[in-house]
């Protein structure tokens, strides 16, 4: 994510169901949270999702969203019932493996009780029919995120949570899953989402757009953007490159010219981080001023309008969000306290790109930031209210460069590619980064990381 303003929190819902059954001996409910210290009720326990298959319809005139979510998962305990995160929307029918299940609302949670318990290790399918008027989640510290109704459509976007405002989900990055979307909207509107585009159908004044992200994805990285867009479709390194700019923006304006650099910047980052990790690439620009940030939505970042004021291009923000495709998307977090692994490396990628393209050197940028940073704020474990604070970005990037200077270029650039290869499509944490850096450098780095990530005074430069 590139900071300019931020996002989400919690919401509400209601649900009805059919027959229910009490748990058998040895079966118990899944937890109503994933156990994240920062956001205890984000996500849920007791199961692991493999994929979401969404078949939805959205009417911008009324703001109504409705349809069906088919969720494939595996039980990680003997489950008597399970929760999904769902906000503002109401489920009308739920089945588990084809049998009617009961559902109830608990704040922003959909509580599903299957007719019989689900044994540990069993793969199962939940189908939820639901509808309502989606909205945003409110978080006083982080801002709003989720579904935004626009003048010509809608946008689903937000970090650290947003997916629950448009589909039932295990809304925590520790449970990554694939996503398939069929979104039906009135003719004349475009739909952008994650992954590879599929077949498009038009019938009775409505068009169904299809998208599929086949690599596992943290739920906050899912997005849908509906409106009137100028879409450019090409192929880059054998993969679809899809770039969308609102029709209201100039076809050759700074936004379009900036996103046209996506392929070039991706190629450079791949030379540093290893092969680009997804089946598609691109980006979407939005004009709604409520979105004062850019977000690394998987395979197709979304950029708010604030980055393209004036006449100049902004390749830095493109480099930042594309770097996240490796650091944050392909390799996601276990817990939000390690957010520096996402933002520190993405900010450092901006520095690398600037130097590579003939601008200010990385060392000079390091020196300037080192002199101006508030060292009282940690980059590691910053606290939920400072999740997107300056320390996470700037001090995170300073830590990355200081690590480079400490272990040397050979070990450092090997570290980058080793990290993205070993943890591809998975999750990792700061402890794993320290272990990998120590193994590749042969150095004890615990004191280094303690000073640069968690200390409250300025560490000496390497």
TrEMBL record:
InterPro entries: Aminopeptidase_N-like_N, Aminopeptidase_N-like_N_sf, Peptidase_M1, Peptidase_M1_aminopeptidases, Peptidase_M1_dom, Peptidase_M4/M1_CTD_sf. Residues 52-221 form the Aminopeptidase N-like N-terminal domain. It is an enzyme of class 3 (hydrolase). Keywords: Hydrolase, Metal-binding, Metalloprotease, Protease, Signal, Zinc. Its cofactor is Zn(2+). SUPFAM superfamilies: Leukotriene A4 hydrolase N-terminal domain (SSF63737), Metalloproteases ('zincins'), catalytic domain (SSF55486). Its EC number is 3.4.11.2. It comes from the Bacteria. It holds the Pfam family Peptidase_M1. The keyword Zinc applies. Residues 1-20 form the signal peptide. The keyword ATP-binding does not apply. It catalyses: Release of an N-terminal amino acid, Xaa-|-Yaa- from a peptide, amide or arylamide. Xaa is preferably Ala, but may be most amino acids including Pro (slow action). When a terminal hydrophobic residue is followed by a prolyl residue, the two may be released as an intact Xaa-Pro dipeptide. Residues 310-452 form the Peptidase M1 membrane alanine aminopeptidase domain. Belongs to the peptidase M1 family. PANTHER family: AMINOPEPTIDASE N, PROTEASE M1 ZINC METALLOPROTEASE. This is Aminopeptidase N. It comes from Actinoplanes ianthinogenes.
